[in-house]
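Dear Dr. V.,

Thank you for agreeing to look over these. As mentioned in my earlier message, I'm a first-year student in the group and I'm still getting used to reading structure tokens, so any feedback on how I've presented them would be very welcome. I ran two proteins. I've put each sequence directly above its structure. The first is here:
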Amino acid sequence: MYARAHSTICSRKTHRSVWSGLQFIIVALALAVPCAATAQTPDPAASDVAANSSDQKPSQGFHFDPDKLDLNIYGLAYHPDRDKVHKENLDNQVNPGLGLHYDFHDTKRGVAFAEIGAYYDSGSNWAKFLSLGYQLKLGENWKFGGAVAAMHSDTYNQGVSFVGMFPLVTYELGPIKLNAVYFPRVANYNEVAAFGFYISVPLGRWIGGSGQKR
């Protein structure tokens, strides 16, 4: 009875922690969107001048930009600890899946983004996730950063949803983007470390955007 009660309490604490993490992601996304719109608001002095112009156009504020939407196509994985993944049956390295990536705040310095998706993970289970992240721009093509993600899969954390952090590197290669992500080994959450590889395809050119590089 004690063990069952203890397990129930731990389960409740875990779900409460996951819900708190999800709330953090949702609130951060909600706050970041108006911030992105505010960042595009013209200087007051410039606004006064524009108000006197005959060709002034009303401000539209924040709006969905199809040029900032990508389709993520997963993917491959590599596990450095080959012996352990074989013993734990976590050696599936072909991880097909799909996701959506949206850059809701893009500047010369970096980009803030949100992602949602699902893929067939290393334990041959479907992993679902929602993430919020930021990457710094280095040069014309490289972006380095990371994300906080709420995840659920029977492979991780004994099948209980959890929130984790991971680094992400992106290289823009013309019509597609190459991405590499690292999932560190964390006790009770992820038993083996893994590198993940996937591509992102800009959707703007197919749904009415300009398809220009951003």
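The second protein is here, in the same arrangement:
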Amino acid sequence: MVKYSIIYRRGQRGKLKRGREENEPLDPAGARERVFQRAAKLLAAKQRSVEELRERLLEGRGATKANVEEVIARLREYGYLDDAKFAQSYASLRLRERPIGRRRLQRDLWLKKVDKQTAAAALDQIFESTPESDLIDRAIAKRIRLRGKPKTREDAKKLFDHLLRQGFEFELVSEKIRTLSKQDESATDEHG
């Protein structure tokens, strides 16, 4: 027996659509096409790494490992999936949005399921053009603009912790906080 259902779309009246029985299997070509269409929708929404897309496709109904691998191979062939390009564009976008350190970007790429070598190559390229010391200076300037200069040791500790959470190296953060504290001390000595 063929099942019918009414499909509602935003701003339209319901349309009768012929559906499949729940236990009626999809033919292999139809299943592969369905996986490909889902992949296209997922990639249209946002860029994804190969592994991230693979996981999302396998969650879909009727998706098999063989279908997913075939679709991923086709997308790579067409140039729609490339982890190196993804890591590069993701990292550069994140740095344009706000100053963050290498460790934070590395963690974010790991969460996006980009392998370590690809992520490291992309980060090397990004940080070659934008040194981490420039980024930490921008982060400190932004924090001071929002909260003011640290007046107490506790405020300096909060700034220190903030910069560590942003993924900057411990030594670099220590050096910048020490420099900032020395500037404050020399400024109070001159005015005092």
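From my reading of the second output: The CA atoms of residues 52 and 112 lie 6 Å apart. Residues 83-129 form one domain. Does that match how you would interpret it?

Kind regards,
E.
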